[in-house]
Amino acid sequence: MQRRIVERTGEFLLFAVTPPRLATGPEQSRQIAELTIERLQPLGIDGLVLYDIDDESDRNASERPFPFLPTTDPAEYLARDLAALNVPAVVYRAVGKYAEHDLASWLGEQDPSRVLSVFVGASSREKSVATSLRRAYELRTEVRPDVLLGGVAIPERHSRGGAEHLRLLAKQTEGCSFFVTQIVYDANAAKGLASDYHYECVARGLEPVPIVFTFSVCGSVKTLDFLQWLGVDVPRWIENELRHADDTLDASYDQALATALDLIAFCRRIGVPFGLNVESVSIRGVEIAACVRLAARLRAELRP
After folding, report:
1. Quick check: 196 and 165 in contact, CB under 8 A?
2. How confident is the model at residue 282, as a pLDDT?
3. In a domain, 153, yes or no
4. Among the four 9, 39, 61, 177, which has the fewest Cβ within 10 Å?
5. Distance separating alpha carbons of residues 255 and 272, to the nearest angstrom
């Protein structure tokens, strides 16, 4: 995976995992990890994504459909329980939670052949932070520049303001060698971002880096509400289909697959390297199983 990022060829598959709740005991955490490994090993994924969950209630005043519960540190969960999967892992760091010393210490301990990272800034300007995103980028350059660093890409923000591609280029200048989107339901928003990023790279004489598009399957109206609370733009016609479908899970699977195939074809056509990431935002077994099925289907679409 690292080679495909560095050479900017893309065409890799990731699967995203949220660590267990902080209150989970060691034995139960190990059992959850074993089940995760059992599900993912047959897929032939190129890497894991491990999210660093933070409370984002300051970003959205609406009631959270699912309560926020602190989770195990993703780096600890990876090292303790998921090493047997034996694939590289993109470990998210919500950098505002960590003091500079702690973040620098963590970076210094990482094996760049095993760990990549995505730094995430504060969820709002009002939030108090221990380390700013800019300073986190500087620390990575100072302490461990060989750890590949990714950035967050938000197609919805590009649709609203038209400047997300410029944010990507600024992050690329600061050391990001790939980007990961939030969950994509609006293919047009994602294509608009990829297109503007591509042509701005052409204008500046730069080579684009891979954009990893994230997909998920929604099995209930409550999960759909949670996705929208998180800031995922679900086009009205898709929302109507999911809310009125006889089987929301099947309808969502078909929609996610169609969106992914559309973006694969588009990125190949314009020459933007890409990766695919599948995640389940729900802990319900049927929704996780559908996401695993989606990942298996997308694996077959990627070039070796």
Report:
1. yes
2. 83
3. yes
4. 61
5. 22
Alpha-helical segments (H) within the chain: 2-6, 26-40, 74-77, 100-109, 133-143, 155-161, 164-173, 187-204, 221-229, 236-244, 248-270, 285-299
pLDDT of residue 287: 93
190 belongs to a structural domain: yes
User: What is the overall mean pLDDT for the chain?
Assistant: 93
The reported pLDDT for the residue numbered 59 is: 53
Is there a contact between 90 and 57 (Cβ–Cβ < 8 Å)?
A: no
Domain with residue 216: its CATH number is: 3.20.20.220
Which residues make beta-bridge pairs with 93? Answer: 119
Per the domain annotation, does 14 fall within a domain?
yes
Of 178, 122, 182, 183, the C-alpha closest to 150 is 178
pLDDT at 122: 78
Neighbours of 162 (CB within 10 A): 12
The two three-digit tokens of residue 73, written as one number: 């540190």
CA neighbor of 71 nearest in space, from 112, 31, 29, 23: 23
Domain for residue 22, yes or no? yes
Domain tally for the chain? 1
* Residue 49: strand, helix, or coil: strand
Query: Domain span at residue 68?
Result: 2-299
Contact between 39 and 287 (Cβ < 8 Å): no
